[in-house]
Amino acid sequence: MTNVPLLDLKAQYAQIRSEVMPIIEQVCASQRFILGEHVLALEAEVARYCASSAGIGVSSGTDALLLALMALEVGAGDEIITSPFTFFATAGTIARLGARPVFCDIDPVSFNLSPAAVQDFVDRQCHVQGGELRNRATGGRIKALMPVHLYGQSADMQPLMAIAKAHRLKVIEDAAQAIGTEYQGTRVGSIGDIGCFSFFPSKNLGAFGDAGLCTTNDAQLAESMRVMRVHGGKPKYFHSVIGGNFRIDELQAAVLRVKLKYLDGWTEGRQRNAAFYDAAFAAAGMGNRIVTPQAAGHGRHIFNQYVVRVANRDALRDFLTARGIGTEIYYPVPLHLQQCFAYLKHAPGDFPESERAARETLALPIYPELTREQLEAVVAAILEFHAAGQRRVLSS
Question: What residue ranges define each of the domains in the chain, with the CATH number in brackets?
């Protein structure tokens, strides 16, 4: 039996060990661990990679979102439109600041925030008061849009930006899974007011622990975030605003600088593996049993995850696990049905596409170091599962 983990970071580390360890030793020898030369260099390199004028290294992708919201002065009485089908931090950071997450359903093909759903919410449930967009039901001020570029594919940004412009909303791009993703030739993170990236180890560009970064083309916002990530102190010990401890570690920045040089090659590997899956499932005539990811024509999909839809998802996952094939469910419970958001008073059926995605989606191994044998093992196991199911149907 061929073992296929969902992710094998040891294989990646083996490629870069000879470069990473001397850099770590260099940082240790310098004993400068906070906001050193590697942080400054990484910020410039990632900003350039993401077509932004400024990068602000932070302690995690979650803190990137939190810092972006703080820099835009989001607080009590504000409401942020976002997706209910995403990692918890997207809405959790909004709630932590006393603001209210407003959920709109996803597009069933891309799994990203649906511009049509956002427009419908604005048209049906909002009105303009004093030049501000207000939620009729709560009275809250709609202050920003937070689209998520899920699984490595961009949300449909043109109509979302048009909605934001029409109503003077800020736009925070949750690009935690999308470094290098493009929309109509433009890198995500440079389209809205602030882009937020995660360098969690499982990401396409992963640190040796938690780390993140914010991008922006607004010099004032960049300066605000730099000050806020050090408790709002400028100069040191003098605080005109309240910030937090959101600094990226020098060691993480040093590791990420080594890895950044390999990122496009790793992304190409993920894209090749995705193409292999697409072709193999199509050749096997699985189109009516497994829905493979559909890359939109408007951009570059970096395949942070390769997520399929299947009607009997949980049974398939158990079958693959028994055969040594790793999978994951991103995400089993949409945010509007999480217990901590019960105060928003949502019920099952409120966002049907998000709920259906939570029932049907399964992430398959996609990391670039997968061998041909491993890819074939994944496909063969899925075909075996469906063949067994078909035999059961015929014999019943």
Answer: 9-260 (3.40.640.10), 263-395 (3.90.1150.10)
